[in-house]
Each structure stands twice: as C-alpha cells, then as structure tokens.
Predict the structure.
Amino acid sequence: MKKNLKPVPTEKKKSLGKLPKKVRNKMGYMKDGGGVARGMGAATQGGKFKGVF
C-alpha cells in the first residue's frame, strides 16, 4: 500500500462510488486510484506552467 493514498471514509463510500473513476483517481483514494503528485497534475500539461509555489 502506498503511503500517499487516503483511506476511503465509511460515510463517503456511497457518494465516492457514484463519481467517475478518473475523478476518484485524481482524488487519491485507495480503491482504484492513486494520488496526483504535487506539480504533476493537469496544470503541468499546459505550456505556461511555471512551477509549484
């Protein structure tokens, strides 16, 4: 188990299950996904990314 993944809260299991898989993956929950490392998200894909401050 990776350390950067969050456990799924019991009160959120139903609501998280309704989200698309891509969204759950970006949120970094343990089931079906991993967290997005700082500075490696969608913002870095553009040509004008200056870094994380």
About this structure: Helices lie at 13-18, 21-27. The radius of gyration is 13 Å.
